[in-house]
Design a protein that fits this description.
Radius of gyration: 18 Å
Order of helices and strands: HEEHEEHHEEHEHH
Strand content: 15-25%
Largest sheet: 3 strands, mixed
Strand order of the largest sheet: 2-4-6
Number of strands: 7
Length: about 180
């Protein structure tokens, strides 16, 4: 999207097969929405932080992994905005959606995010938390995808408020590395 603040009401323009099929699934869910079939669509920001089924291909987790294990982070571009949400907050959002009055959420779409930071900001936060011995290198990139999502709708509709920051996710991952919770 060219818009700075991506809202749930905007037309989808999926770029990958994954996002195309996800959009098709949303259409199907909304088509069958009724009092007997409650459907609510959550569109998570990039989920970050420690998980038992860890993904290291997501920006916060990737940069933390590189910083911790290689002591070197390469940032491609860097000015691109990336919306994130801590995994603990995403779980809480799912719990609240399951437990809330169906009338508030049936047929609704919610962005679920918290912090919109640039890749540069995330890299510097990793360095701040892991220590000054980490080097950050910048390379140019032709991938300028950048977006900022608004999660005001879920904040206002069901009063969902995230409690964990990107810094919390970086610290959780650092502790997990320190405790050797990941296999090589």
């Amino acid at each position: 999207k060219d818009e700075q603040n991506v809202l749930e009401t905007m037309d989808l323009k999926p770029l990958t097969d994954y996002s195309k099929y996800k959009a098709m699934c949303e259409d199907i869910l909304l088509k069958y929405c009724s009092a007997d079939f409650i459907s609510c669509i959550l569109r998570p920001a990039t989920v970050c932080g420690f998980s038992k089924r860890q993904r290291f291909d997501l920006v916060v987790n990737l940069l933390t992994n590189l910083g911790y294990n290689k002591k070197q982070i390469t940032v491609f571009g860097g000015d691109q905005l990336r919306p994130n949400i801590h995994i603990k907050d995403m779980i809480e959002a799912y719990k609240q959606i399951i437990e809330i009055n169906d009338n508030l959420i049936n047929g609704e779409i919610f962005n679920v995010g918290y912090e919109n930071q640039t890749v540069n900001e995330i890299a510097f936060n990793v360095k701040k938390i892991l220590g000054d011995k980490i080097s950050i290198f910048k390379q140019e990139s032709d991938d300028n995808r950048s977006y900022h999502i608004s999660s005001e709708k879920i904040f206002n509709t069901i009063k969902f408020k995230p409690q964990h920051t990107i810094d919390d996710a970086i610290l959780d991952l650092k502790i997990s590395f320190d405790e050797k919770l990941f296999n090589d």
